[in-house]
Amino acid sequence: xxxxxxxKNALKGCGACAGIFLLFIIAAATxxxxxxxxxxxxxxxxxxxxxxxxDLEALHGKNIDEIREILGEPTxxxxxxxxLQIEWGTTExxxxxxxxxxxxxxxxxxxxxxxxxxxxxxxxPSGPDGLTKNTALLEQxxxxxxxxNFSVEPVQALKDPSYYTGIIVTPLQ
Length: 173
Fold this sequence. Notes:
By secondary structure, the chain is of the alpha+beta class. It folds into two domains: 1-32; 37-171, no CATH class. 38% of the residues lie in helices and 22% in strands. It has six helices and five strands, in the order H-H-H-H-H-E-E-E-H-E-E. A hairpin with a 7-residue loop joins strand 4 and strand 5 (164-171). The radius of gyration is 27 Å and the shape is globular.
């Protein structure tokens, strides 16, 4: 009888070990997770201080000429459409500005000089071809998170719509 009780106790001990081992595996899988998952990116973005690269709130209401004065010389070789392009009906143009690893493209109406929109390209070293899943970071880089002066639209990548090429920020009138 003592042998039967010892076998039952041994089996109970093995069951407890197996349960603890299973909990350990589940905890390790949960804690390890995918370091590139959107949930982790959002947590990192919310807890890290992000420096504004292009302050669109400060540029709100400014025309392209005023924006050039603030941001400096565009990186484009053609700041304006040629006379022939204007003669052919070109009314919309763009200028690009680079700071650090980021590039901001400003589209404007040529006759009125009014800004139509801004586009910030993603430059995420963890994403394929610099694409990102973290558009909240791009909004922070432009100082437009929760802004009532702009609408923000993420631009999906064609090859993989779970990633984004950047964001388009449109001034609200």
